[in-house]
Amino acid sequence: MKSKHLLIGLSIMLLSLAPQISKAQSIDLGIKAGANFSSLSDASSLSNKTGVTAGAFAAVRFNMFSVQAELLYSEQGAEAGFGDIKLSYVQVPVLAKIHFLRLFNFQVGPQFGFLTNDNLPSGKAKDADFSLVAGVGLHLGSFRVDARYNFGLTKTISEIQDIGDVNSKNKYFSLALGYSFL
């Protein structure tokens, strides 16, 4: 139910940008792939896990400011002595980007995640995840490099066998390479 509300809200937000697209200086469409280095907050007995992120992006640029939406597949989780915690999401970040020196940008915005698969020793992950994204990017012609940190704002897992109540949230650093077709 909450996932539907998030998706409807995101759709309305993107549609409200449609009149501004005709005033855009440039439009970018492309693909990206990279790695996530993730963990779960408030779970000291867990360590980082490396996963894959890949998907597509669309951006509309107005001089030094742009808005970029993405559709990504993301592997997250953590490693523990009793086994790996694997969480897979379809994520939709919507980022405001401030460009400077023609090559660099700062990125910030919300990210909506929808759980597609979980592998937990016991318990279950929540179906939806909401986080805040902050990072920097580099544009080299058609190529893109992004380095971001994702701060989980919603509880992901409430209890894991042998650990107890972890009250954890997703947190991870991602590094991705992209290519713009336009």
Question: What's the SSE blueprint?
Answer:
Blueprint: H1 2-16, H2 18-21, E1 26-40, E2 49-62, E3 65-80, E4 83-100, E5 104-119, E6 128-140, E7 143-152, E8 157-160, E9 164-168, E10 170-180
Antiparallel strand pairs: 1-2, 1-10, 2-3, 3-4, 4-5, 5-6, 6-7, 7-10, 8-9
Give an overview in words.
By secondary structure, the protein is mainly beta. It has a single domain (25-180), classed as Porin (Beta Barrel), CATH 2.40.160. 10% of the residues lie in helices and 67% in strands. The chain contains 2 helices and 10 strands. The strands form 2 sheets. Strands 1-2-3-4-5-6-7-10 form an 8-stranded antiparallel barrel. The longest helix has 15 residues, at 2-16. The termini are far apart. The model has no long low-confidence stretch (mean pLDDT 85).
